């Protein structure tokens, strides 16, 4: 066994805001958007519930059989030896047995069929001996077994789902089993986004010398689509003050949230922070994280503004660590726990102290059946393939100075995150 180093304390470099503090500050500045809509339940997948769902019926609506077998009175089960009961009819799901089961009688019953009057117990067909109309039951059975009680899943009057619930496939089924055709959900969040940079060439145009293709607008498109927001893609804006001002004004009139990438550092062509200062309120932070140090956050008219860094991996890391939780909060979604695991790393991990690293990793299952993590390799903030090859972030705390193979690290799987 390799010894595990204790988690070094995560106090970041002076002048940089810690990841946790940045998250907390964003959270205090957000409000849930107003506006709801009533939708057919199929259209509510991945939306946020805006009402309480109270069960108007018992689910299941009646006591019914959990097995294919025989329904009988529990008191007729033998304490020893065998009891032979008279078969008096059949009960199918949807077409019950209309008579009453009396002492010494039983009814052939299928899964989901209503428990006939008089009966309170079902014995599996595999556990009986059939002799024509005489059914033989042995010992070892519990009275009341194999019966699903009315209201066991959802009792009439119970609160089944609360506002803020993120609607999953299971919930569509839950709503349907209550007989609800429509529910009220929050309206979609409107998110406008654009890239900034004179070097950016759009897909479909030939690349000129010194240019790169604009990839951030595509990763943002993907990340935002997964969240089910309304997308307003405003293209590429040049590094020009007037153009950026115009784009800011335009975006803030149409969206609840405006997201930009690039132009947020302190270079001579970085106008994002300055423009936000002029047209809105800015909270500019240098965050003690890698990748993704600069982040502009603030208000632009009625919209919330996120100015993400330009480097492609930084865009994704800051989006998942800050923007996504913020958008979910604005959508009215109740927060869940951040899912992380502690796993051994197979590869040593290089790290300089001072900032929280979000390195890209891949989960592997060893021959011993245990999960481990590997680095994807090059970790530069421009190496976007590190994100496409990864299935998790390896989160290394600020003061960590590197990790040896075999040590435990904190891992945030992409499953459920992206
Ligand atoms: P900036 O923050 O604008 O200085 O950009 C930092 C780095 O990210 C530079 O190397 C940019 O070329 C690059 N970059 C900025 N925007 C994009 C984009 N939309 N797609 C790909 N790379 C970008
Ligand atoms: Mg730039």
How would you summarize what this structure contains?
With 418 residues, the chain is α+β, with helices and mostly antiparallel strands. It is built from seven helices and 26 strands. A hairpin with a 2-residue loop joins strand 8 (128-131) and strand 9 (134-137).
CATH domain class name of the largest domain: Alpha Beta
Strand % is 25-35%
Broad structural category:
alpha+beta
Helix content: 10-25%
N-to-C terminal Cα separation, in Å?
33 Å
- Enter the CATH topology name of the largest domain: Molybdenum Cofactor Biosythetic Enzyme, Chain A
Outline the low-pLDDT stretches.
Answer: 1-11
Determine the mean pLDDT.
95
Bound molecules: adenosine monophosphate, magnesium ion
Q: Domains counted in the coordinates: how many? A: 4
In spatial order, strands of the major sheet run 7-4-6-5-9-8
Q: Supply Rg.
A: 30 Å
Number of strands: 26
Count of alpha and pi helical runs: 7
CATH architecture of the largest domain: 3-Layer(aba) Sandwich
Give the overall shape, derived from the CA principal axes: elongated
Report the sheet with the most strands, covering strand number, pairing sense and barrel closure.
Answer: 6 strands, mixed
Overview features:
six-stranded mixed sheet, 18% helix, single chain, alpha+beta, disordered N terminus, Molybdopterin biosynthesis moeA protein, domain 3, binds magnesium ion, Molybdopterin biosynthesis moea protein, domain 2, 4 domains, binds adenosine monophosphate, 418 residues, 26 strands, Molybdenum Cofactor Biosythetic Enzyme, Chain A
């Amino acid at each position: 066994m390799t010894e595990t180093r204790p988690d070094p304390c995560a106090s970041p470099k002076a002048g940089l805001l810690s990841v946790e503090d940045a998250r907390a500050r964003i959270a205090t500045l957000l409000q849930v958007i107003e506006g709801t809509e009533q939708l057919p339940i199929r259209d509510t997948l991945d939306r946020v519930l805006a009402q309480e769902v109270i069960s108007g019926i018992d689910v299941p609506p009646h006591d019914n059989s959990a097995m294919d077998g025989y329904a009988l009175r529990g008191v007729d089960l033998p304490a020893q030896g065998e009891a032979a009961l008279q078969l008096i009819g059949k009960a199918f799901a949807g077409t019950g047995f209309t008579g009453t089961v009396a002492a010494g009688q039983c009814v052939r019953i299928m899964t989901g069929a209503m428990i006939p009057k008089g009966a309170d117990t079902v014995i599996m067909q595999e556990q009986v001996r059939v002799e024509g109309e005489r059914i033989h039951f042995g010992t070892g059975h519990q009275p009341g077994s194999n019966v699903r009680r009315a209201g066991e899943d959802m009792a009439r009057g119970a609160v089944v789902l609360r506002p803020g619930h993120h609607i999953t496939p299971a919930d569509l089924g839950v709503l349907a089993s209550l007989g609800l055709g429509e529910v009220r959900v929050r309206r979609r969040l409107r998110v406008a986004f654009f890239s900034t940079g004179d070097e950016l060439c759009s897909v479909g145009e030939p690349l000129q010398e010194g240019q790169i293709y604009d990839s951030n607008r595509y990763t943002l498109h993907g990340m935002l689509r997964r969240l089910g927001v309304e997308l307003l893609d405003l293209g590429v804006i040049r590094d020009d003050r007037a153009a950026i001002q115009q784009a800011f004004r335009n975006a803030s009139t149409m969206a609840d949230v405006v997201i930009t990438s690039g132009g947020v550092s302190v270079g001579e062509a970085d106008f994002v922070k300055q423009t936000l200062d002029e047209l809105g309120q800015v909270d500019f932070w240098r965050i003690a994280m890698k990748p993704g140090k600069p982040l502009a956050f603030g208000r632009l008219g009625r919209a919330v503004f996120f100015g993400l860094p330009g480097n492609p991996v930084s865009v994704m890391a800051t989006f998942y660590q800050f923007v996504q939780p913020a958008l979910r909060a604005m959508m009215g979604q109740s927060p869940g726990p951040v899912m992380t695991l502690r796993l051994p790393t197979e590869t040593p991990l290089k790290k300089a102290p001072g900032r929280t690293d979000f390195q890209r990793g891949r989960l592997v299952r060893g021959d011993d059946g245990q999960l481990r993590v590997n680095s994807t390799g090059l970790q530069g903030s421009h190496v976007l393939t590190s994100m496409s090859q990864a299935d998790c972030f390896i989160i290394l705390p600020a003061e960590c100075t590197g990790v040896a193979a075999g040590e435990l690290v904190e891992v945030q799987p992409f499953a459920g995150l992206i």
